[in-house]
Amino acid sequence: MERKIKVMSIFGTRPEAIKMAPLVQELESREQVESLVCVTAQHREMLDQVLDAFSIQPDYDLDIMAPAQTLMHITVKALEGLAGVLQQARPDLVLVHGDTSTTFVAALAAFYEKIKVGHVEAGLRTGDRYSPFPEEMNRTLTTDIAALHFAPTPANAANLRREGVEQGIYVTGNTVIDALTSTVRPQYTFDCPRLNQIDFQKERVILLTAHRRENYGQPFEHIMEAAKQIAAQAEGVRVVYPVHLSPYVRQTAQQYLGQVPNVDLIEPLGVMDMHNLMARCALVMTDSGGIQEEAPSLGKPVLVLRRETERPEAVAAGAVRMAGVESDQIVRQALTLLENPAEYAKMAQAVNPYGDGRACRRIADAALYSFGLLPAPPADFEAGAR
Ligand code: UD1
Ligand code: UDP
Q1: Distance (Å, rounded) from C-alpha 351 to C-alpha 53?
Q2: Can you give the pLDDT at residue 294?
Q3: Is residue 99 flagged as an active site residue?
Q4: Of residues 35, 386, 370, the one with CA closest to residue 177
Q5: pLDDT band for position 385 (50/70/90)?
Q6: Looking at residues 87-95, what average pLDDT do you find?
Q7: Is 211 in the pocket of ligand 1 (CB under 6 A)?
Q8: pLDDT mean across residues, the chain
Q9: Measured between alpha carbons, how far is 382 from 284 in angstroms, rounded to an integer?
Q10: Measured between alpha carbons, how far is 93 from 372 in angstroms, rounded to an integer?
Q11: For residue 50, which atom of ligand 2 is closest to its CA?
Q12: Nearest bound ligand to CA 243?
């Protein structure tokens, strides 16, 4: 009988789920893999939206989320829950994704059980341990634990080598580009009724998202104030903001934008709706990590509502600009783009430094290779190559 490895994918939040879903599907299609899924459910509703969209039924669900949870809560609950799961299932390999608290804790739990860890989306760095917080520390610590490092881009791999990682680095592309290939459609009816009422030819839609912990407080208020001013000053625009379920975010968004007629505060969107909205909007303003990767490949200009980014590739390509967290600067940058077609055209060119839709295949191949089940490693992803 052919030898199989048991691979457990562990994730907990919406972005991890979106980026792990195509990988879970890829692993399930491999005869040499027994694929298991464990969710911490650090997010509940926002995670379940993704599991439904990709028809994934977890084998283990720790259901740890609490309202307005602290980092301590997530860490302790996830670590406790994962100990039992790992002892029972004893996978050969644990796959974690990115930089959330679930990511780091799952890697730590696997380390305590002496189980090999593969880190998907490895090597992103800002160099500032407090920004993004706590994500920069989560991903750095996960690098220390992991044996396999699936770096989306050559620059991410270079970051790892600079930190002294010598083995187990594979440049794979980002799995989010794999996910995008199955979600965006030319003809699409939204699940969210409000979105079906929008005439995307008549109104220029600005897709806004903001949720980062390090922006809580003044920076977040500045972002909300900027959105209000842009809605008032730019001609023919509609701001659509699917509001994250964090109580702080919801309260503040409602306070600043709840009464503005051309701002729609809507519930978090399912991933199909989100990707298809992105494909139809004029401009994206976001502090999200994943959206900075998705929008450029759909030819949508992005203003990043942060002081730094761990994703410099699309900035260098001209598709993404850093707008910071000061109201004046954000408003100025948005109006420049909306009122100046030449500036807009410069940014609205589809660039795809993050992947070619084959990341999951490379990751599965690399995992099998590392267990001696394939004779050669996958060829690295090269941006621009087809
Ligand atoms: C988390 C990650 C962050 C990631 C983000 C993606 C950490 C520390 N943070 O931040 O890296 O960018 O997810 O969205 O790992 N809530 C719900 N239902 C949900 C999801 C959240 O009600 O489905 C509410 C709860 O009150 C929860 C709060 O939002 O306590 C915050 O969730 P949490 O996962 O702690 O932080 P995020 O800001 O979502
Ligand atoms: N997203 C979604 N619905 C929403 C907002 C975001 O499906 O209402 C998707 C988005 O397209 C991207 C991912 O969620 O794939 C990004 O998640 P988020 O911004 O919460 O986290 P980050 O990427 O910043 O960690």
Answers
A1: 26
A2: 96
A3: yes
A4: 386
A5: low
A6: 98
A7: yes
A8: 96
A9: 26
A10: 13
A11: 7
A12: 2
